[in-house]
Amino acid sequence: MRRIVVIGGGKIGAVIAQMLVESGDYAVTVVDRSASALKGLVLHPRLSPCVLDVTDEGALDAVLTGAFAVLSAAPFHLTGAVAEAAARVGCHYLDLTEDVATTRTVKALAANARSAFIPQCGLAPGFISIAAADLARGFDQVEELRLRVGALPRYPSNSLGYNLTWSTEGVINEYCEPCEALVDGELREVPALEGLETFSLDGVAYEAFNTSGGLGSLAEVLAGKAKNLNYKSVRYPGHCSLMRTLLNDLNLRHRRDLLKDVLEGAVPGTEQDVVVFFVTASGWRGGRLMQESYAGKVLGEHHGQGFWSAIQVTTAAAICTVLDLLAAGRLPQQGYVRQEEIALADVLSNRFGKAYRQPSDTVAQPPVAAVA
User: Fold this and answer.
1) Interior CA angle at 371 toward 137 and 298, to 5°?
2) How many C-beta atoms surround the C-beta of residue 185 within 10 A?
3) Residues forming a β-bridge with 95
4) What pLDDT digit, counting tens, does each position of 236-293 carry?
5) Full-model pTM
């Protein structure tokens, strides 16, 4: 029984904890500064709540000491403090952040760490990075690699065509910060909310535009191997224009706390969501220009007496899968570990990663039944 600490008892952290304790191989301590947030956790003999402010270094170090790993599901601006604590006590570290600056901090800490540091273990970056790297490996030279991901309401009913399904701070951050891309083989920063494109998938109209953080370390890994590489968030048509009005015309990109209050006071959340993802790669293989794609949709699911939304399922399943592979010795046990080092086949065959399986997927091995 490995002891795991989950930082953050919100929508995602609670599902991560429940997945892990129900697997039978992990005991989980969930840390949150809000006692009321911890009251929403599902009761389980291997799950322990802990009221703690992660900015209290001494208290955080104490709870992490002796743990196999800490999984950060905290807001991105707190993740750095969790990573620093993991480095001090020597436990493995995993997070869900899409924030580029935070990931640079994690990478620096990993250089001298005694344990593994694996950032960006969610949906995007995370699973989408693993799927994209898997496609890219099938080409002698990649001409273009496009990643598209959206966490969307199934029944959009407002002018934004959007509901708050995960961290409001995270959404604002990815709409404001610069985005990495490979353009004609060169690593560049491109502005968020630009590069607007429209498309249809299964008869549904969508738009996509640049957002920050979704590529993770993929641009670094494929530099010199891919000509063009970009990541865009998928939304329903019209969303990008309205967000440009809020962020640019009304200058709310410089008043993010106000924008957060406005969105949370006006845009409802929903559990009736869908996660849409697809990766398209084109390039040269055996002297021929070829194209391959990997796409899918994930819906929410009833679980026990409750319901897990699609974004909860995909995000929690992704980080739990990485933890499982780490615990089973399938990943490096020390230093910085990129998502691109994880095999897509290992994810899809994992007991948690099966959440991402699509009808067309061929699973080469049985799901992991237990952690060594």
Assistant:
1) 55
2) 13
3) 72
4) 999 999 999 999 999 999 999 999 999 999 999 999 999 999 999 999 999 999 999 9
5) 0.91
